[in-house]
Amino acid sequence: MKKRWIIASAIVFSAAVVAVVMWFMDNRKKTETAPEYVLFYAENQTENYPTTLGGQKFADLVYERTNGRIKIKIKYGAELGSEAEAINQMKYGGIAFARVSVSQLAERIPEMNVLLLPYLYDDSAHMWRVLEGEIGDEFLEKAGNYNLVGLSWYDAGARNFYSSDKPITSIEDCVGMNIRVQESAIMADMISALGANPVEIVYSDVYSALEQGIVDAAENNWPSYESMNHCKVAKYYTIDEHVRVPEMQICSEAVWNMFSDSDKEIIRECAKESALYERQLWIQREERSKKKAIDSGTIVTSLSSDEKKKFRDAMSDVYVKYCGDDMELINKIIDY
After folding, report:
1. Which residues, 6 or more positions from 208, have their beta carbon under 8 angstroms from its beta carbon?
2. Inter-residue contact 180 to 199 (CB < 8 Å)
3. 50 and 57 in contact (C-beta within 8 Å)?
4. 67-76 burial, b for 16+ CB within 10 Å, e for fewer?
5. What is the pLDDT of residues 92-109, one digit of tens each?
6. Which of 65, 92, 218, 283 has a CA between 20 and 30 Å from the CA of residue 205?
7. Distance (Å, rounded) from C-alpha 200 to C-alpha 206?
């Protein structure tokens, strides 16, 4: 009798477990929604780079808040092409979302050039006051001039000078130096305005150019300086923050127009939340790179506000050449 009772109890228990599992599976089917949209997001950086992780955060938030109706797949490592190629595809809806440098957008939307001007901002806080205010909103809207929708701003840090033989402590120290620059007319003119000689060298050759004395200095952000081992051949790092080029999360206008108003609102909110997340990741990445460089022997110099003003004042002709019609806006940004 006892054996029969145990068997009966086991059968009842098993039936209860099956019922619970069936109820769970049935309710999960009811609550889950098959994606209505499956969309691609272009990112040219590596999987663990701050902007890539920010993009994934954006995708996760959108998926969660649309109950799985909008699924965004992050394609990192330039799988969908370079930033320039991604922008071209987005114009026609070939790619739905992307994170791109404003320098790439400026090639198509000249009004964006204002945000590329050297010594435009006093510091990071100044830039974010501008970008998170009405001026930043106006620039997000300018993406519409190329059939794009600007969603939010991402951080890419500040570019600073680093040199091999001596630190750059004043504008006079720049005179006569050969300084490597990327292939950019505005960057070359910036170096010339400081009395130095701009030398265009591809990024992969900068280490050897510094090591061999082909150039006396170069410029980039902390992560690039440290990760490419430039700190080994140029130990003097001068924090002048001459360029802060923000990055923008964008959506193809053709894709955007398919969404409902409520979905558009969700996407904008998620983009802004992911931007705050990415900014924190960037700060952490910068601090790690800075510490590694200093621990390996880098000597850091920070320009005083008075000295930095001299560098900015030297840019007057550059400002006029590239954004002469926008001087009122430039002054507004400087005073913001």
Report:
1. 214
2. yes
3. no
4. eeebebebbb
5. 899 999 999 998 899 899
6. 283
7. 10
The amino acid present at 27, given as its one-letter code, is: N
* CB-based contact 45:77 (threshold 8 Å): yes
Q: Which residue has the tokens 């993406």?
A: 143
- Looking from the CA of 89 toward its CB, the CA atoms found within 13 Å total 16
Q: Each residue of 108-157: pLDDT tens digit?
A: 999 999 999 999 998 999 999 999 999 999 999 999 999 999 999 999 99
Q: Which of 155, 179, 308 shows the shortest CA–CA distance to 234?
A: 179
Tell me if 256 sits within 8 A of 37, measured CB to CB. no
The predicted pLDDT at position 305 comes to: 85
Q: Indicate left, alpha or beta for 39 from its phi (over 0: left) and psi (-120 to 50: alpha).
A: beta
In this structure, is residue 17 part of a structural domain?
no
Which amino acid is located at 187 in the chain? M
Rounded to whole angstroms, the Cα distance separating 312 from 40 reads 40
Same domain, 38 and 163: no
Q: Are 87 and 203 part of one and the same domain?
A: no
Neighbour order of strands in the sheet with 178-181: 197-200, 178-181, 217-220, 159-163, 236-243, 299-302
Nearest alpha-carbon partner for 286 in 243, 232, 227, 334 = 227
pLDDT of residue 204: 86
The two three-digit tokens of residue 89, written as one number: 């595809």
Q: What is the DSSP letter of 108?
A: T
Decide: helix, strand or coil at residue 155. coil
What is the Cα Rg of the chain in Å? 26
How far apart are alpha carbons 37 and 96 in whole angstroms? 10
Residues 143 and 192 in one domain: no
Q: Which residues contact 4 (CB under 8 A, 6 or more apart)?
A: none
